[in-house]
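Our consortium's second objective concerns turning raw sequence data into structural hypotheses that experimental partners can test. To show how far this objective has progressed, the report includes one record in full. It was chosen at random from the queue rather than selected for favorable results. The single chain below, 96 residues long, was entered without modification.
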Amino acid sequence: MNLTKKHLTAIDVTIRVLIALIGGYFVAMLSAILIGNHLLSDKTNSIITGLMLSFIFYLITVLFVFATKTTKRAFVVVGGVCILLHLFNYYLQGPQ
């Protein structure tokens, strides 16, 4: 099968949508957990603050995915942010 420029553009956009949806969800989830668990405030206020800020992080992730030049860079950056958030949360929880 011969892939034309039109097919490659459609595949690129589809991959970017998947990166934005799935990666944005994980970035928002991990940031909400990090802020909710480790913000020095009342536990209820920390959780609400984390959930509110997670919408902003999701928006920033989606905007970045579609603003970046290549799909590979979007995937690497979003994946790296997810890994860093997870490791930072794991580090702050300490031994269990």
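The partners drew two points from this record. The two ends are 53 Å apart (CA to CA). The chain has a mean pLDDT of 90. Both points have been shared with the crystallography group to help prioritize constructs.
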